[in-house]
Amino acid sequence: MGLGIADRFAEPAASGHDQAMPIVAANGIDLYYDRFGHAGDPMLLLVNGLGSQCVRYDDELCEAFVDRYLQVIRFDNRDVGLSTHLPQGARYGLTDMAADAVGLLDALAIERVHIWGCSMGGMIAQVVAIEHPERVTSLTSIMSTTGEPTVGQAAPELIGRLVELSAPAADLDEAVERAVALAKAIGSPDEFDEPMQQRRQRAFIERSYDPEGVGRQIAAITRSGDRAAGLAALDVATLVIHGDADPLIDVSGGLRTAELVPGAELLVIEGLGHDLAPAFLAAIVEATTQLVISTL
Fold this sequence. Notes:
alpha/beta
């Protein structure tokens, strides 16, 4: 189970989990998940990005998909949120995180999904489509990249700031301050809402805080190599969405993804950074819905 901020800064750490929570055993770990929508509607599996808990995909976003006649599952990846946090020194890759997602589907007796992921979540979604194609009806890869070193790189001036803001905090207030500053540094430049981010980031950190777990996720990305050959061999309806103002994963990552996947649709959103700013959600929900409709 994930560590809340009080557990993180005041030992001992919490252990075990509340059996009433929606947690299933999958791929040798426990995964927390939430489910929205109505039985019989197409299923959309939302996969989170680096250090991102499932609640970053707001209830409002999930309900917007439900309003378009989709079921939605969001879940905490390993090493974040209320899913299993692995011990120091644990090693894994994106293949393992993709297997977690498939294990969740197995545990919930779901055969196929429309898989949808942002940033690292897009990478994981790509790996699920490549390695488990029988489970995927469509793929939506958002603000993500192929793993090739020539595309999708962070703006050089951002690197030092990311290192500074990702360091473990001394207390809750400092953790929130750093999280808000990070959200501003990578987010849509004309859409930053500081009071809203203060509320959101505090809630996230109070739910779970584990910088070492985020470090293990970073290592999973770096040791997993590129997916160019696998993407080029995909035979699945695919939508690639990227913002032209993304400083963390340059838009070239999205352009290259769409270039590689046969028949992929590309949507570049003007002004979108590395976030899901509310101003752009309607366009993202609509494009996703149209992709699902195209597979019916």
